[in-house]
Specification:
It contains nine helices and 24 strands. By secondary structure, the protein is α/β, with parallel strands linked by helices. The protein folds into two domains: about 170 residues, FAD/NAD(P)-binding domain, CATH 3.50.50.60; about 140 residues, FAD/NAD(P)-binding domain (3-Layer(bba) Sandwich). It has a five-stranded parallel sheet, covered by helices on one side. It has a five-stranded parallel sheet with strand order 11-18-12-13-14. Helix 1 runs parallel beside helix 7. The structure holds flavin-adenine dinucleotide. Flavin-adenine dinucleotide binds next to helix 1, strand 2, helix 7 and strand 21.
Length: about 425
């Protein structure tokens, strides 16, 4: 028997196992997946919990329910990988041998990495929404918060779902407007980037959307510490931003065992070939999803497209054949913009987000680079698709590689506020 060991039963690991199980003969291949617990979280749902749109029950389900028959789920923390011995050591002392290893242990927020962030104000006036506990605590806070200076903050890139902090700012604006208290809230979006987003065209558009909503943008802000007493965030170039409520995205890092195993970069992401996910050091080790050091967004959509490419390549690789499919870095991100609308952006390693229709060129029904109600419904519908189609490994009618068909290579639309400034 050959053994495929998948580390992490999150978005990518679950899809890898479910897609490969029918393709690998059960009398020749064992597939084992390891995770630290049996709770699968639909993380995009964390964004909506603070605003009372989703409850935690809607975003958490047992992992075991989403793994097909013939896949063994081992519950336990991973302590380290010994890649020269083809062995994984669990924290409880168990050893798991493998012939092929797929690392899909994602990335996680690490507030302890920034001085003062996880200090005495954590959970009082400093929150995150990148964990279930964080988003639930923030929901409680927002129920009674009377207003003041709300600072939405990104510590350092890369983070998973790069639009999520912007979405939080847009949803907060809409939330306070609905409660007739927007005039009592000053919102500032603080980022280490030089604009609102990572991609220049989308950055300009999203920057305009911040402007339209009266949300101030503080770019190039590299946080040095959170001052709990003064309630400020302080940058290395000594800028200080006061807050009454800080909603931060802490430094995101790959799993600690990746570092302990000597398999990661300085943020514990696993270096791999960006087209095949194969490690340059070990011919039987792959990394996929947020755990990999891919130069594209860390997002569930990327994991989905990547797994489609990976599974076909993997079947060739184990037969000693050349891997013929090449991942293009395809990502699509919904950007919830408040008041029942959302924008959608679609890009890859080489092509910036462009206007057009998605997934069917000319038809949509989703519209790229524009705020639309249909995009918002697409985002909400995605939760159902995630549990019922994506995780079980069903093929969705969307192209794996980014399509240029029907896309318009035009300048980014200028927001009304920007237009006024230009005139
Ligand atoms: C607030 C928020 C909003 C988001 N919105 C979107 C969105 O709209 N669209 C989108 O595409 N993506 C979105 N994402 C990102 C998306 O959720 C992730 O990119 C996706 O889940 C990555 O899948 P993964 O399998 O790589 O990692 P994960 O799904 O995080 O899975 C990693 C797994 O590894 C396990 N693990 C880690 N370390 C260990 C260890 N030492 N031992 C045992 N097990 C371990 C974890 O328990 C986890 O189950 C969002 C994320 C957040 C936080």
């Amino acid at each position: 028997m050959k053994r495929l060991l998948v580390l992490g039963a999150g978005t990518a690991g679950t899809m890898v196992a479910n897609k490969l199980r029918p393709a690998l003969a059960t009398d020749e291949w064992e597939i084992t997946v390891v995770d630290q617990d049996d709770s699968h979280h639909y993380q995009p749902g964390y964004l909506f919990i603070p605003f009372g749109v989703y409850t935690s029950e809607e975003v958490v389900k047992p992992r075991s329910r989403y793994l097909s028959a013939g896949i063994e789920l081992v519950l336990g923390g991973i302590d380290r990988v010994l890649p020269e011995e083809n062995l994984v050591k669990l924290a409880d002392g168990r050893d798991l041998a493998y012939d092929y290893l797929v690392i899909a242990t994602g990335t996680r927020p690490c507030p302890d990495e920034t001085p003062g962030m996880a200090g005495e104000e954590w959970g009082k006036s400093v929150f995150d929404f990148y964990t279930l506990e964080g988003s639930k605590a923030l929901a409680e806070k927002l129920k009674t918060w009377e207003g003041g200076r709300l600072v939405v903050h990104i510590t350092e890139m890369p983070i998973k779902c790069p639009p999520a902090p912007l979405e939080f700012a847009f949803l907060a604006d809409a939330f306070f407007k609905e409660r007739k208290m927007r005039h009592r809230v000053e919102i500032t979006f603080v980022t280490p980037l030089d604009g609102a987003f990572t991609k220049p065209t989308a950055s300009r558009l999203l920057g305009g959307m911040l402007d339209e909503r009266g949300i101030a943008l503080e770019p190039d802000f590299y946080i040095e510490r959170v001052d709990n007493e003064a309630k400020t965030i302080v940058s290395y170039d000594e800028r200080e931003i006061p807050f009454d409520l800080l909603v931060t995205v802490p430094l995101n890092m790959g799993a600690a065992f990746v570092g302990r195993s000597g398999m990661g970069d300085e943020l514990n992401y696993v270096p791999v070939d960006k087209h095949t996910f194969l490690s340059p050091h070990w011919d039987n080790v792959f990394a996929i999803g947020d755990a990999a050091d891919l130069p594209t967004s860390k997002a569930g959509s990327v994991a989905h497209f990547a797994v489609e490419v990976f599974t076909e390549n993997f079947l060739q690789h184990v037969k000693g054949q050349a891997m013929t499919r090449s991942f293009d870095g395809h990502a699509n991100c919904f950007v919830e913009s408040g008041a029942g609308k959302a924008m959608l952006i679609d890009f890859n390693y080489d092509v910036e987000p462009l206007p057009g229709k998605y997934p069917f060129p000319g038809l949509g029904p989703l519209t790229l680079m524009e705020e639309r109600r249909m995009n918002h419904w697409g985002k909400l519908m995605f939760r159902w698709l995630y549990w019922n189609a994506l995780l079980p490994g069903r093929r969705l009618p969307v192209p794996t590689s980014m399509s240029m068909t029907g896309k318009r290579k035009v300048a980014t639309p200028i927001s009304p506020v920007e237009k006024e400034k230009v005139q």
